[in-house]
Structures are given as structure tokens and as C-alpha cells.
Amino acid sequence: MSVQTWTWILVGITFTLYFGIAIWARAGSTKEFYVAGGGVSPLANGLATAADWMSAASFISMAGLISFMGYDGSVFLMGWTGGYVLLALLLAPYLRKFGKFTVPDFIGDRYYSNTARTVAVICALIVSFTYVAGQMRGVGIVFSQFLQVDITVGVIIGMTVVLIFAFLGGMKGITYTQVAQYCVLIFAFMVPAIFISLQMTGNPIPQLGMGGKVEGGAFLLDKLDILHTELGFNEYTSGTKSTWDVFAITLALMVGTAGLPHVIVRFFTVPKVKDARKSAGLALLFIAILYTTAPAIAVFARTNLIETVNNKPYTEIPEWFKNWEDTGLIAWSDKNKDGKIQYVAGKALDGKPAFTNARGDQGERIVSNANDSTNELYVDRDIMVLANPEIANLPNWVIALVAAGGLAAALSTAAGLLLVISTSISHDLIKKQLKPNISEKGELMAARIAILVAIIIAGLFGIYPPGFVAAVVALAFGLAAASFFPAIILGIFDKRMNKQGAISGMIVGITLMLFYMIRYKTGLIGVMDPRPASEWWFGTSPEGFGTVAMIVNVVVSMIVSRMTPAPPQNIQELVENIRIPSGAGEASSH
Question: What is the pLDDT of residue 73?
Fold first, then answer.
């Protein structure tokens, strides 16, 4: 059977499963909608947390980033893994003990202020929308290639699917859907990795295969280093980023993780604090399976790509290349008119591919914005994991399986993020501030309307994304680090921290991060083009600036809190109490 037939079959089976679970687990109360009734088992919650955590950025983009960045890409592995450990050990048990299942709810009650709650709602919306843009973009990429539709159509299909199981089941439906999605995505990630590891090194364990020997006796990484240097790239195993920027990006990803509202809420779906700790440990184990495999996939994909396309006549290029070329995610421009693909260091294009409908002499789509560099090949980083089985010439069912896995990863996280957006509006804004007497039925309806509006906005972000998936997601972590982390960590461990300090810190932190992100990533402030790396403050990339903004947030929070009245005595006693990790009851929805 063809790849497309297999894709329809596997995607059809998995989506039928997701919809069936959403209908079975339909939420009937706000507690079920927000925290799945608080009765999820640690194992199921661990699986769901891992699926929530491993978004399109982890499944689709992380290996692609490492594939192109080499050693520098390790910051994503270190930051995201370390961040989860930080969240599980340092924050989750205390937030669970506090009994509030949204970050704005915690901040509103801890800082005894609706102003603080409103600022937190705004921050949660900014972080979640930035993050969900990456997920919708990932969905669009998968659909566009494997179902042969335009990326925009792919995003719209993805929006519809997420809307159905988030709208019906809320957190209850999403939790059990995510258990299924984890099983799909991890199987889809590991099967091609095992196949390719066997094919290239004879070792079925990808993590070991990456360091193994290939045909001819050379080590795979040594071979890749040689290929890189011959083509003018930096050595794959050596870094180019400054030590400071590596530190800044890693820390921003770590503390941004600890402030991500859609992951924190997962710890309220289990009955007890002890169960929250168990599910955190299980989730880390489930996450590690994918995270330790991603560098191996990156090495396999990079080696195969270079060997398959470089200096090869376009007329002899495999079918997979032409399929991806039609989506606009890979492109060739025959600059020296020799009919061969020259893949060397340098940008092939001035920006994203700009196609016309015309075809060139070799049958290629004409790329109208090629630049003067000698590199003729444009490759979108986000296709590396998806195209990897095709490049390695694996069976069609394996190629289709990866498509199903990519969709599972993107949809599971998108659903969790959309739920955060809806609860921030229905619970933290409407129920807690605007209409305190709203009925449970009314609150549930408000949550569902909020999801509908949120998914339309998220879809627009997916159609017009500010960058490739992992870059967008990295910025979301920076925003979370700059806004939420100091307010949460100081709220737990500094009983002198008051509402004035928290509000000031959050506003200054997120404003600074937004300014820097827009100025140096999208170029909408002052000039239309992003400012060059030579103008970065302290040599800090936009992905790492969350660390600087977080430090500024902490300093502002501490200074302002010490210059203003201390919190009420009952709040100080509450802070003392939540640090005693025992005897917590169920999470309350009101």
C-alpha cells in the first residue's frame, strides 16, 4: 500500500480512538472539566503528563534542531529535561498542597489580590498562545505532507479535531486521550529509530547506535564531523554558542518549564499529594525514552540527508524529496546550472521559499527568492523527523506511523494549552472576578466558548507562525520564566513576598521579554527586520533572554516587597503551612 493509504488508515484508527475516549469521558461538572474530577491514577497521570509535555516541539522539532545545530542543540535537551525535574521536585507538591488548580488562582489567593490574578491571567494567555502556535504549526506540517493538503488546510483540520475532544471532555477527556496519545507517539518515535539504527550501525538501541561504528569501521559521529567540515559547516560535535548563551537558554527553558500552566495543572488531577509525586516520577521515565532517543535520530537524519542529496543529479533524487518539495518545506535552486544539488554551508534563500507555479528545466518548482550563496538546498528543520523514515527508505507503514505520532504529540499539548486558556478566562476571570455568582452550568458554558475562541486564534498563529516550531515554543518558555516562575517560587518560599512585589515583578518581567522577543525575533519594533545577533544585549539570544527577564523580575519583586507592607498574618501562616508536604486534601474547583 502507498504511504498515503497507510497514513489514512493509521491516522483514522488513532483519531477514532481519541474521539471515542472524548465521548466516553465527557465532563459533566466544572471539577471534571478542570481537573478530571481529581481521581486519575498516578500511572495514567504520568502517561498523560508525558504526552502533555512532549509536544510537537519535542516530537517534530527537537531532533530537527539538534540535527542542524549539532552540539548547540543540546540546550533544548538539558533545559526541558532539567525543567521538568525542577517542576516535579520544587513546585508541584507545594502547589498541589495549596489546592488551586490554575496558576492565576494560586497567584490571586497567595497574593490576596484580584489585580495579581488578572496580571497572571494575561501572562497565562500570552504564554499559552505563543506555545500553542507551535503546536498548530506542527499539525499543519504533518497534514500538509501526509494527506497532501496545504499547510493552512492542515491547521484547520487540526483545529477541528482538538476542538472536539477538548470541547466535550475538558481535562477528563483530555487526560485519557493523552494516555492513548503517549502510546501512539512513543511507538511512532521509537520504531523508525530502531530500524535506522540497525540499518546504519547494526545496533537496535538508537542511543548506543549513535556512538557506534558504520560500514568501513569509522564511528558514526566521526563520519558526520568529516561530512560537515567538507561542506563548510562547523563540526557537528563542537559548539558555536557562547558559554553564557548556552547557560541562559538552558536556564530559561528550565525555569520556564516550572512556570508552564498546562503542565502544573496535571498535578491536580490525582487524589493526593503522594500520587502527584508518583505520577511526576513516572512521567519523567516516560519522557526520558523520547528525550534520550532524539539526539540519535538527529545524527541518523543528518547523515542520511547529506549522503542522499549532496552533489546528486536532481533527476536521480528519490521520490520523498519531490513530495516534500511540493509542500514548500524543502527547496532546490540550481544556481550553477549543473543539474546537481549542492548542499554546503550558507543560506540557500533570503527567507522562506517563495514558489511560483512554473517548473524549471529539471522539473523542480521555481524558487523566486534564492540568494547569492553557493548553497542550493533549503531544508525546513521541522521536516527532519517526519522525512527521516523516507530518507532511510523504510517501509510505508513506518512512514505513516510517524505521521500519526506527530499528530498525537501536537494535538495532546494543544488540547492541554487550550484548556489552560479556557480556565483562565472562565474560572479566574469570570467566576473569580466578574460574575462570582455564576452557576456551574454557566461556568462550564463559558469555558467551552473560551476554548472555541482560543482555538480560532491559535489556528491563525499556526497559519502565520513567527518561526519554526521549536523556536516558537522556546520563546513561550522564556515568557513563562520571565513572568510566572518568580511569582510562584517566591510565593512558596518567601512569606514576606507581597502583592505589590509580585505584580510589579510579573509586569516588568513579561514586558521586558516581549519587547526583546519582538525586537530581536520578529522585528516589529523600530524596524521591520529582526535586529542582528551583534546587537543582542549581553550576547543573549531571544531564546535565552527569559533568564535575564526572570532575574530582573526577582530583583524588582524583592525590592518592591521590602518597601511596602508585609502580607497579612493569615497569608504568612498559609505559606508556612503549604511547605509541610502532608495531609493535603482534594483540589477544590471553587
Answer: 82
What does residue 358 show for φ and ψ, rounded to 5 degrees? -75, 155
Judged against a pLDDT cut of 50, whether residue 590 lies above it is answered with no
Residue pLDDT, tens place only, 235-248? 888 877 888 888 99
Residues 296, 207: contact at Cβ < 8 Å? yes
Q: Where are the alpha helices (DSSP H) in 36-150?
A: 42-53, 56, 62-69, 74-86, 92-98, 103-110, 114-146
Cell of 502: 509580585
Contact at 8 Å (CB) between 380 and 359? no
pLDDT in tens, 459-497: 887 777 655 455 566 777 888 889 888 998 898 888 889
Residue 322, judged by CB atoms within 10 A of its CB (0-12, 13-18, 19+), counts as middle
Query: What is the per-residue pLDDT across 281-337, written as a single tens digit (0 to 9) for each?
Result: 888 889 889 888 989 998 998 888 888 888 888 888 888 887 787 777 788 888 888
d(Cα 437, Cα 443) in Å, to the nearest integer?
Answer: 10
Which is nearest to 255 in space by CA: 493, 487, 558?
A: 487
Kindly state the helix (H) or strand (E) to which residue 254 belongs, with its residue range. helix 243-258
Which amino acid, residue 276?
A
Q: Which of 257, 220, 241 is nearest to 78 (CA)?
A: 257
Domain ranges for the chain: 30-304+391-466, 330-379
Say which amino acid occupies 254: M
Nearest CA-CA partner of 133 in 117, 151, 155: 155
Which of the 8 DSSP states describes residue 348?
A: S
CA gap 167, 19 in Å, rounded = 11
Whether the CB-CB separation of 306 and 231 falls below 8 Å is answered with yes
Query: Which CATH code is given to the segment(s) 30-304+391-466?
Result: 1.20.1730.10
Exposed / middle / buried, residue 355 (Cβ in 10 Å: 0-12, 13-18, 19+)? middle
pLDDT tier, 217 (very low <50, low <70, confident <90, very high otherwise): confident
For residues 103 and 98, give the distance between their C-alpha atoms in angstroms, rounded to a whole number: 11
Question: pTM score, two decimals?
Answer: 0.79
Length of the chain (residues): 590
Q: Residues 93-129: pLDDT tens digits?
A: 777 777 766 778 888 888 888 888 888 888 888 877 7
